[in-house]
UniProtKB/TrEMBL annotation:
Belongs to the 3-beta-HSD family. GO terms for biological process: B cell chemotaxis; steroid biosynthetic process. It is found in: Endoplasmic reticulum membrane. The keyword Oxidoreductase applies. Pfam families: 3Beta_HSD. Its EC number is 1.1.1.181. This is 3 beta-hydroxysteroid dehydrogenase type 7. The keyword Endoplasmic reticulum applies. One of its GO terms (molecular function) is oxidoreductase activity, acting on the CH-OH group of donors, NAD or NADP as acceptor.
Amino acid sequence: MADSAQAQKLVYLVTGGCGFLGEHVVRMLLQREPRLGELRVFDRHLGPWLEELKTGPVRVTAIQGDVTQAHEVAAAVAGAHVVIHTAGLVDVFGRASPETIHEVNVQGTRNVIEACVQTGTRFLVYTSSMEVVGPNTKGHPFYRGNEDTPYEAVHRHPYPCSKALAEWLVLEANGRKVRGGLPLVTCALRPTGIYGEGHQIMRDFYRQGLRLGGWLFRAIPASVEHGRVYVGNVAWMHVLAARELEQRAALMGGQVYFCYDGSPYKSYEDFNMEFLGPCGLRLVGARPLLPYWLLVFLAALNALLQWLLRPLVLYAPLLNPYTLAVANTTFTVSTDKAQRHFGYEPMFSWEDSRTRTILWVQAATGSAQ
Ligand SMILES: NC(=O)C1=CN([C@@H]2O[C@H](COP(=O)(O)OP(=O)(O)OC[C@H]3O[C@@H](n4cnc5c(N)ncnc54)[C@H](O)[C@@H]3O)[C@@H](O)[C@H]2O)C=CC1
Ligand SMILES: C[C@H](CCCC(C)(C)O)[C@H]1CC[C@H]2[C@@H]3[C@H](O)CC4=CC(=O)CC[C@]4(C)[C@H]3CC[C@]12C
């Protein structure tokens, strides 16, 4: 990546490259990174769609592996110029144990950092989350906040705890000497709730609506705003950050960036209706149909049932005390830090993002009208 080697082809590694975000990062790199010579896609579960990418001009190497296994990570990282670490266990529903979440998100990230240090890879972009900041357990609103907005970040749930610790590890590793003696340069990107093609929870809401005869029932007041960002823009931000890390190492190294775009500020449910509405669903109620205390009770009941049934069956509904608290607490970002530090502008307008997502929901659910 030095001046004398402008034409040098680079090796990128994307961990979690077959996930919702990871697939978009992989495709974005292939479309928008002209210096890409080889793209390594590392995931526990490889997607069949990778095969079609292997016929293009860039060498695409699919690596089935587990980030919790240090030797597998080190083998994948060896010889890579840049690592984009998106692999993670995204679980706020109690499907996995706290230990497993920690193992994948924290130990997995530690393994990636150590592999960079041991093998001489200098540039690491980490997919963090808004959840490392909040919403906190006290339900304090974070209204149009930026990376410097003071906020009492208090974590109890295993997922935000693990993301916060992993992010800290990544930022703390900035400046460590890698093999060969040069410094590691790291940064962390913090998406808010990501939406777009491949968003499984959106599909779950659609199916839930169908089961209820095409109706969804408002549970959260429309005044509670929830930050959302389109997956294509999050992917683009990763690609740009990775590209600029060397030239702007002093500015970007050790920094965090919220992921943002022109998506409107709305409640979680009203935002989802931007896509589910055109697919035939209706949201009933200008105000929540159930009193909040009843939702709290139902969420607690779900948590109790999950605990009681665990020896027999996995019961993991969308509503639990944690998801209710997140959905019911305003958390929106307003920042231009990524633009100032590495020239990020959203690649997709809100209209494009909306259209693409609607087309995906329609195709994924066979709901085109
Ligand atoms: N979905 C969202 O709204 C947000 C996600 N994030 C972060 O973005 C990243 C990607 O999330 P999504 O794409 O939504 O999740 P996802 O579950 O679709 O993708 C995660 C990928 O990581 C892989 N993976 C999981 N455990 C692994 C392991 N032990 N070894 C190797 N690969 C493993 C999975 O197979 C999957 O392909 C995660 O780090 C998550 O914390 C951050 C903010 C919001
Ligand atoms: C599933 C929740 C909505 C259910 C509300 C109910 C039961 C009342 O209808 C989702 C509300 C907010 C979501 C989370 C948020 O977008 C932030 C996230 C960031 C991440 O890093 C991972 C995903 C998530 C925790 C996301 C998960 C679903 C919600 C809790």
